Amino acid sequence: MKIDVYATPDSAKEKALKDRIVVVIDALRATSTIITGLYNGCKEFIPVIDIEEAVNIAKNYDRDAFLLGGERNAQKIEGFHLSNSPMEYTRDVVEGKTIIITTTNGTKAIRKASDAKKVIIAAFVNVNAVSDYIRKVGEDVAMVCAGTDGYFSLEDILVVGAIISNLKDKLHVKLDDLGIVSCYLYENNKDKLDDILKGTRHYSRLARLGFEKDIEYCLKMNAAPIVPLYRDGVIRKIKNLRD
Amino acid sequence: MKIDVYATPDSAKEKALKDRIVVVIDALRATSTIITGLYNGCKEFIPVIDIEEAVNIAKNYDRDAFLLGGERNAQKIEGFHLSNSPMEYTRDVVEGKTIIITTTNGTKAIRKASDAKKVIIAAFVNVNAVSDYIRKVGEDVAMVCAGTDGYFSLEDILVVGAIISNLKDKLHVKLDDLGIVSCYLYENNKDKLDDILKGTRHYSRLARLGFEKDIEYCLKMNAAPIVPLYRDGVIRKIKNLRD
């Protein structure tokens, strides 16, 4: 199985994603939030780029059927129901709902992968579930990290490393340089992710803004063990391999 | 001092390079070759993108004054004097000459940085000289790796790590995520660079093509301890800090 890794959506050419299972990662916080919402029983997420687009889509739904979620500058968007904090996506809030979400980096990365064979959403909170899914499907993979404002972001690379580390124990994987680096970084820091992340850009910005609880949750391995699939503009929980 | 790191030329926005000392790295092999040629007494390098451009520039020079160097698909270009192997750029061949060079990744990276304040050429062979220069100049730095065909290339990242590792012992450096990663990777592998590089894309391709001697030389720390400066289309050895 070939695995290619892209540190930012811009570094991934659409052509390179076309025949792959694409795994999109924005560990702090968008994909952690989406995975958590689906784990807690929401019906689906609709990831969109713009606030305006989100508000327009919401008009198609009954008032009780949807929630608007996301962030700009890490903060809740005015008039939206939910921010980009996974802690807000509890069962009593999200169960049965369609959530229209827009975030600075994560939703862009998901939309970039639209033409891929399959698009899977990953973060630390579902590392094992995603690894198992990839192993069972058995096709070549492209990992697309959301990064931060177009820059390499270490937390996403560590999620990639955790998935690769799982997979390479069970099958032969052919890695590119960034895959080798991701796996090396994860395996040498897995018991102290906090330590190596402390000085990094996005982590320290969120910590400065008071989101320590979100960070702590987003680094919890396998806290929400499901696999979300993005298809036809909508993200839903995978029920079986034929999805 | 702020240090930002870009894994490929495309990931570096021109604007982000403008007010920086830009360090361009293509350890296997273009920047190692340029540094070595200058160390061995050649007058200057003119890095160009196209073979045609190289041939046209050569027309301005007397027959004895220039050499054409470079590669396509890692091999010598038809009609050129020299390939991209640093082993060919010996004193008896290059002394006093202008060398017009075109390579697949390296010369593109150099040209991308054209608008920067200063552009410095680095590789393992001049790590300490470059680190000393940066420390003395004391301005913010952008490290631009050539990568391989648009992809993240580990050997370049390890050169970045070696320079950062030198600098951070002597002054306070503010690193982005890729800077943290580069330094970590270098410091944890400096005594066995070969081991971590063996599975990587460009290294293993060159090894397959029979360039083991080039690889061995390109990994030699400080084998050619000079600092090349790219200015007005030409790369020359820096003689003093005011250059």
Specify the helix fraction band of chain A: 25-40%
The total of helices of chain A stands at 11
Rg from alpha-carbon coordinates of chain A: 16 Å
- CATH topology of chain A, what is it called? putative 2-phosphosulfolactate phosphatase
The CATH architecture of chain A: Alpha-Beta Complex
Strand order of the largest sheet of chain A: 9-1-8-2-7-10-11
Q: What does the largest sheet of chain A look like?
A: 7 strands, mixed
CATH class of chain A: Alpha Beta
Instruction: Give start-end ranges of low-pLDDT stretches of chain A.
Output: none
Shape of chain A: globular
Structural class given helices, strands, pairing of chain A?
Answer: alpha/beta
Protein chains sharing the most extensive interface: A-B, 27 and 27 residues
Strand content of chain A: 15-25%
Mean pLDDT across every amino acid position of chain A:
95
What separation lies between the terminal Cα atoms of chain A? 20 Å
- Write down the domain tally of chain A: 1
How is the quaternary structure best described? homodimer
Give the full name of the CATH homologous superfamily of chain A. Answer: ComB-like
DSSP, total strands of chain A: 11
The run of helices and strands of chain A is EHEHEHEEHEHEHEHEHHHHEE
